[in-house]
Design brief:
3-stranded antiparallel β-sheet, Ribosomal Protein L30, Chain: A, single chain, alpha+beta
Length: 59
């Protein structure tokens, strides 16, 4: 069974670059304090690293 990560959007993307907004959309985060559970893959980790200043990640 694959590891899971719970990702929560804790800061607003308003005023951030368009690329950051697209990464958040790709992660499925479109509202403040929304959480999603995703598989722990290299692709997801890369997306998290791009916008880590806006997120809270738990295992």
């Amino acid at each position: 069974m694959a590891e899971k990560l719970t990702i929560t959007l804790v800061k607003s993307p308003i005023g951030k670059p368009e690329k950051h907004k697209l990464v958040l959309q790709g992660l499925g985060l479109n509202k403040l304090n929304k959480s999603v559970t995703l598989d722990d893959t290299a692709q997801v980790r890369g997306m998290i690293n791009k916008v880590s200043h806006l997120l809270k990640v738990t295992d």
